[in-house]
Amino acid sequence: MPRHILTLRNQSKFDVLFSPNFEVAAAYLAAVCRPDEQLRVQMLTDFMNLFCARGLGVNLLKWALSAEIDNTSNPRDVFRGISVSTLMMEIVFEKVGKEFLNLSIGNTIREIIQSGKNYEVDTNRVDAKTAKKNSKHLIKFTQQIIDSLLENISNCPKVLRFLFNHIKDMVKAKFSGFWNVAVGSFVFLRFICTAIVFPETWDMVYEAPSLVSRRGLILVSKLLQNLSNNREFDGKKESYMVSMNTFIVDNKLKAFQILDGLSESGTDVRYRIAVRRISGNPSASESSELNYGSLNTQMRMLRKQRKRGRKNKGPNTNSNVHLYEVSEEEEEAAFQKIGEEFVLYSQAIISHMRENGSDSVGDFQLLLLYLKQNGYGPTKPERKKKKPIFKTLVFANKSENVCFFDESQHRRRKKIEESEGSSYSSGISY
């Protein structure tokens, strides 16, 4: 059966996926999140595109972040492993965070690479005198990064600040006093330090750094990670980094100010209200004309829409923050892929929903029926019909010679066997 294209007209079929309680989303993620990280990233990107296209991307992320915090018992383990929420945040960092990183730390990273200097401080690799000299260069550039981050807090994408603030509030409510560890695990471990070690993937440089420069970038990231965790080097694992503890002590306040500033709350953070659905599905040119504007501009647009009395207002736009833009092509492609996975993993998704007492099983089954009717999911290969073979045993004389008759596709093939003094054709002795 030819597969029906799920164009934007068919989006209403997926309404069960966008329910506020995220029952179907939770079951899908639990059933489909495969162990291969690359496959999970691609699957989560498609999944997030569906929500972002409806102005619900931040809602999805807030739900995923809250769910992980609720399921974590040790405050120091929050967001430390690879999970759905951490992978989603990494996707967002790559989508909206590159410009901020280039602006804040790009010049320092390029200076480290272009200088060609050795920043090795391990005395097992270089002599003590060289290690001491290199440590000064390492501290110098790390200090530049800290100072630049502090100066550019206001340039951080406000949607990231909104999410960092949500993490801060949730962790404060459950683990009072550990919010900086949770926020720091994203700001430094998964965002800034990742970009420092691999600047070529974050568009800060055109080519991969040399091995010497890469080693220097790794040492800078180690220093920043311990600083964000408010933890000095104890010398058990990396004794050569103990000399950097003075830097950590001197910059504890600045690290706190960075994390606090990036996760501050306030009306200025709630920017770019998702107005994608204000005019239905705006075209690319219409979206660029809207440009999402300032908060006051968006609110005026929303008030005008309500005065006109349009029935299709879309989601509650007052409670949504725009995550990132999704083109119609990306949205349609996401519908195709998620539709296929719904059918492929339908039994696991339904089982998970029933285990959790979901009320959306019936609606999800209706969606599955619609998808299957339109050719989604694995198709059974056509079975090749075996050619019928008719075997007849013919016994003649005492020698009991046998003749076989094979009949297929209305043709009769003859097989003749000969024996001593007798020959047989078509089962008749002659």
| SS elements, strand count | 5
- Main sheet overview: 3 strands, antiparallel
Quote the average pLDDT: 75
Structural class given helices, strands, pairing?
mainly alpha
Strand order of the largest sheet: 3-4-5
The share of residues in extended strands comes to under 5%
Q: State the shape.
A: elongated
What distance lies between the first and last C-alpha atoms, to the nearest angstrom?
56 Å
Report low-confidence residues grouped into runs of 5 or more.
1-5, 267-320, 390-430
CA-based gyration radius: 32 Å
What order do the helices and strands follow?
Answer: HHHHHHHHHHHHHHHHHEEEEE
Helical proportion, percent range: 40-55%
Contiguous helical run count: 17
Please summarize what this structure is.
The protein is 53% helix and 4% strand.
